[in-house]
Amino acid sequence: MVVTSHDVARLAGVSQPTVSRALRDSPKVSEETKRRVREAASALGYVPSETGRALSSGRTRRIGLLLTDLENQFYPHVIAPMHRELEALDYQLVLQTETDDTGRVAERLLANGLDGVLLATTTVDSVLPVRLRDRGVPFVYFNRTSESVEADSAEVDPGGGLRQLADRILGLGHRRVGAIFGPRNTSTAEQRETALRDALAVGGVSISAALSYRGPFDFATGHAGALHLLQREDRPGVVVCGNDVVAYGALNAARELDLRVPQDVSVVGFDDLPAARWPLLQLTTVAFDLDAMARRAASLLVDRIEDPAAPFRHERFPSRLVERGTLGAAP
Amino acid sequence: MVVTSHDVARLAGVSQPTVSRALRDSPKVSEETKRRVREAASALGYVPSETGRALSSGRTRRIGLLLTDLENQFYPHVIAPMHRELEALDYQLVLQTETDDTGRVAERLLANGLDGVLLATTTVDSVLPVRLRDRGVPFVYFNRTSESVEADSAEVDPGGGLRQLADRILGLGHRRVGAIFGPRNTSTAEQRETALRDALAVGGVSISAALSYRGPFDFATGHAGALHLLQREDRPGVVVCGNDVVAYGALNAARELDLRVPQDVSVVGFDDLPAARWPLLQLTTVAFDLDAMARRAASLLVDRIEDPAAPFRHERFPSRLVERGTLGAAP
């Protein structure tokens, strides 16, 4: 005889959906009920079938997070809060890495039977959002958006923090400002670059092409970019980095060149990751609530899965300057 | 009419399993065949059903990785290679975090329909391996083992690296050796502590209880441990840390106390994570092939799932000392 969740429900004196929820350890079920359901399941030798559950509901309760570089130090601080939020909502987080062929990524996501996808690395020119929309896979933009397809989004508003930063940079007498921007085909890099340039322009300062460097948001970009900028005759007095991980690379390049930070050169990041607070780094950076933003992206996606017809929501998290030790007076 | 994978197979002129593999983007299928299968699927409007696949095979092709602290800087360097290896083997990686109640973890893993589990945080006294064995869920020990239940394992042999380290510490004239060990209920901490003590004992040096500190393998442990040890009258000349993340905490504590590394105190790690190479850290550490070890754990688990009756395999990865800038002569 095959024992089903209905048998367990009967023995425990609860409804069948409650059995599923209790065995998934859902926070919606009381501890007392969970205990009763577990005892009933154990007495009957019931083994819950995830496959059966997916068949009956049409849902797998699995959500993909699409990333590129899993070893980038930014992602743990995104994965952890998304995982926590999804766990509380009874969903599992499945990591998916992006390959060059976005058409294939869409097929793989579909074949994997995901209820929805969190897009953390969208480029503005990606066709993936179009493919996902055409195939009816719910998704949310996290930290990056694309204008090709509208979807719920959780991103930073870099304006507040970067205006405070520009004020401070100008106040410290900097005129030769360098920057290591993110990739041009990401909304995040575009928005940060525009906000920084606009805010510096108020003080009559611009970032010349010669003092600009551009690359992926990673350590290698910061390292190579700073080695390039800081060995110029007209070395910038401050290097504004696309994010904290880029700034880690820049700080290490400055050390390699025996330049003191901030006496010889100032370095600024964006994100305020935990290591920015390290006494060995003391990174001045632009902060926002990354943890809340990651959790919000997860809950936006669950809301979308449960109510596909709801109006789109675009959440922008405010930013602010956090001063530590790497921004000083112009040399 | 419902289009099935058999219809796609017929149109593409391949077998049904090849259709599944092609649509999962398996490396075992040629690019040409994948193209033909995709075209056939597209022509017929076929949407692969992961649920149907699980029903027909009894497998979900999903593997859980059980972790505690997702934000620990050690894990990205474990998750990334495991993910790559599993992707190549057509499996998905699902993150699972451990709670205090291991009984519930086992139930949750079962309810989630995983084909197997990678255990990365096992304590020697955990009942989880027993529960998994009793319920027939295949698992592999990664980096930590437990003697309660035998299972395939991939771990470090710390002996080689720690003997080299002890030789070097003794050769540099250190006699007051301090240590920040990992938790006593983990095989990793036990093995490293025993290997270090044995190797130092050859030179007549022991680590006193007063110069020992113990805690989870994280930044906070290294920071608190070093603040504690380095403010003693009989400050140790070298602090050997349970792993690199602990050593990051210790280096930052030394900076806070205005102690120069290695002139005033030496600090050593274990793992050789990428940041150990940072010019700002230059951490002397014990290295092993963490990437290969993580991939191996993943492939051991897949082998176990596919052949439950095979003999157990225990793989121990050799270690060696990597000298950088944080180990110097006794002060």
TrEMBL record, chains A, B:
Q: Which UniProt keywords apply?
A: DNA-binding, Transcription, Transcription regulation
Under the heading SUPFAM superfamilies, the entry gives: lambda repressor-like DNA-binding domains (SSF47413), Periplasmic binding protein-like I (SSF53822)
Q: Which residues form the HTH lacI-type domain?
A: 3-57
Q: Which Gene3D superfamilies match?
A: 3.40.50.2300, lambda repressor-like DNA-binding domains
Origin, by domain of life? Bacteria
Q: Which Pfam families match?
A: LacI, Peripla_BP_3
Per the database entry, which stretches of residues form a coiled coil? none
UniProt key word Nucleotide-binding: no
Protein name (record): LacI family transcriptional regulator
**Taxonomic source organism:** Microlunatus capsulatus
